[in-house]
Amino acid sequence: MFGSSPLGDESRPRDDAIRLLARREYSRHELAERLVAKGHEAEAIAGCLDALAEEGLQSDTRFAESFLRSRILRGQGPLKIRLELERRGLDREEIRLAFDEAAQRGEGDWFALACDALSRRFSGPGDIPRERARRERFLASRGFDFDQVRHALEHAWDSATDHS
Question: Its function (predicted)?
Fold first, then answer.
């Protein structure tokens, strides 16, 4: 009997989930995948995740806000961030709300962010089409859309402080 939980096996998914959440935020989908990988039963996982959400210990809204903020700080664009959030199991409405909240906080000026990313990586717009294409690919791979890429190519080196 030593070493076993007084609540039996049902507490184990919760213990594993708490350990994971102690390190960083996880989406419900990510947490479920990790608990399945640890060998927990689907029914026990669902109940555990419902309880964690009710207690405010796991929140897809909080996860989306945290994830979005961290990716903005990395200089990633909205297309890549949206795709990553979808891969982590968030629906489009949750993603839209996270982007709206970020905009209300003054985060996510995608045009300025594209300019910053470009000016940090390259010293100028490039003298030949091949160099310009390289800069376009760089921003596209970061998740910026066509208009943001064009804006950045035209304005990234205007001044060191203003990219809007």
Answer: Modulates RecA activity.
Three-state SS letters, 8-39 = HHHHHHHHHHHHHHHHCCCCHHHHHHHHHHCC
Q: At what angle do helices 60-73 and 78-87 cross, to 10 degrees?
A: 140
- Which CATH architecture best describes the domain 8-54? Orthogonal Bundle (1.10)
- Per-residue pLDDT tens over the stretch 27-36: 999 999 999 9
All CATH 1.10.10 domain ranges of the chain, comma separated, are 8-54, 60-104, 110-155
Cβ-count burial of 68 within 10 angstroms (0-12 exposed, 13-18 middle, 19+ buried)? Answer: buried
Q: What is 110-155's CATH number? A: 1.10.10
